[in-house]
């Protein structure tokens, strides 16, 4: 059984509505442990770097402005199959397609303002965790 770590971000639409605790409860109920967490206000340049993979997409500018609009909560989640499990708990990118009980179904406002980010593969998880956290800040 593989214990993994994944990078999660509680996005500005959710921090603004004071939903951090409710979202963290969803992670913990699914068996994901929050082994690092910090509140940070990204600059638009930092958001752009984080989402560089999407730079050719039509929504890139809007996405970067949104992610820099208000503080976010960056976290490392740890557990068995944490990367896939977090994606399950998050639900589909577009909340209209998200399954009942998922974070995006319950809390997301739109496909853009969709409350959470989660890494999608082991390589991106490692890269995204190191974007936000130094090794000493992650306490498993
Ligand atoms: P996910 O966040 O589920 O991994 P993604 O990697 O395809 O989805 O896209 C990253 C973010 O970009 C997504 O959470 C919200 C935004 N986004 C994606 N598709 C969009 C669209 N069609 N219109 C506006 N924003 C979009
Ligand atoms: Mg993605």
Name the strands of the widest sheet in spatial order.
2-3-1-4
Low-pLDDT runs? none
CATH architecture: 2-Layer Sandwich
Structure summary, number of beta strands: 4
Folded structure, characterized:
The chain is built from 7 helices and 4 strands, in the order E-H-H-E-H-H-E-H-H-E-H. The chain is of the alpha+beta class. The chain has a single domain, classed as 2-Layer Sandwich (Alpha-Beta Plaits), CATH 3.30.70. It has a 4-stranded antiparallel beta sheet. Helix 3 crosses helix 4. The longest helix is centred in the C-terminal third of the chain and has 11 residues. It is globular and about 40 Å long. The relative contact order is 0.26. The model has no long low-confidence stretch (mean pLDDT 98). The chain binds 2'-deoxyadenosine-5'-diphosphate and magnesium ion (MG). 2'-deoxyadenosine-5'-diphosphate binds next to loops. It comes from Paenirhodobacter enshiensis. Its EC number is 2.7.4.6. Keywords: ATP-binding, Cytoplasm, Kinase, Magnesium, Metal-binding, Nucleotide metabolism, Nucleotide-binding, Phosphoprotein, Transferase. Belongs to the NDK family. This is Nucleoside diphosphate kinase.
